[in-house]
Design goal:
Strand order of the largest sheet: 1-5-4
Order of helices and strands: HHHHEHHHEEHEHEH
Distance between the termini: 34 Å
Shape: globular
Number of strands: 5
Oligomer: single chain
Largest sheet: 3 strands, mixed
Number of helices: 10
Helix content: 25-40%
Number of domains: 1
Length: 382
Amino acid sequence: MAGAALSAGTLLATDVQAEDGDRSGSLSKGDAAILRFLAAAEILETDLWVQYNELGGIQDSEVPGGSGSGPYTDALVALDGDMPQYIHDNTEDEHTHFRFINAYLASKGADTVNLDAFRTLPGSTATGSSRKPRLTNLMQLTVDTSFYTRYRSRTKNPDLDPNFKFPPAVPSLSSGQFPAIPRNDADLTPHDHIQAIANTAAFHFAFIEGGGTSLYPSLAQRVTNVQVLRILLSIGPTETAHFQIWHDKAGAAVSAPIAPLTDPKNPTLMFPDLNSPPFGGENFQTNLIMPEPCPFLSRKFRVCSIIRPTKTEGLQWEQSRRLPRTGFSSANRRSSLKCCAIWQPTRMQHAGNVSQSNFQLPDYCRAADWQKSRTRGLKSPL
């Protein structure tokens, strides 16, 4: 995984600004647009994981930056003793994904993706943070935890039941804004407060990777080049491996001895014990982390254990609401990226001001490019 030897400057040779003549090189415009979209998604995902690793992972030559936060790391380790290693490895994996995709695009003479111009958000000032400017904000999150029941349902599939609302595992996480990393050293105490922050992170970890788990197989159905297909089919399962790990670790935040837990600094945030009444059963049991069989393609077939959703029709943008909406500074708003969403619905707020347009995909993935490949039925993100 330590991978690519090309420098970041080589890999990210093309500025984020796009013009009508975005180069696809020897790739079809549709395939190049899909790869650029995935590169942008992986860059944003990497930005999230770098912040987690700086404070709660392992800082080394593979994933440098930050120096760790003892109380935050301890709270993560309370969920699982291997959390710092898993965070480190997930961070490294995301680095290799966007770097490989950009290198591949460059090798085909196609434009690559660089979002550095948008690294303007201030991050955590807690001890251990590098305090570098960020693309994303982990300090005010609203996290949709319905992935938890979606993968436990035996009767519903979002591809077949698009209007069904899967109940959230932690309802309060979807109705407020909460930090998933310590914002400053004042967040390190009391114990239950920093544990609530770590619990929020655990659900956000699974939330992030669940999006990639669906995105890659969805887009793989729309590419035309066999080698591009191989890329999507090879990277996508690593996102699923990440999701499986984090789905398991999130369960520790909602089971004894950690749960039930209420954040003493914000009593609206509560983590119930999902193994105890009124919860429990297959929809909530914390060790049921493998996808339960559900209807697939049509209810005339037998149920099957699958990744869901994977339908490509309207992918925008069902998935488009799924990228973390990250507030930009006012200086960025005029030129904010239109980055279509990949991850499940969450809102990341900065300075109390949520931008509703936030990230949008640059013109890398204009409607024309998506429609010129065999992408009919996949709506434009714009």
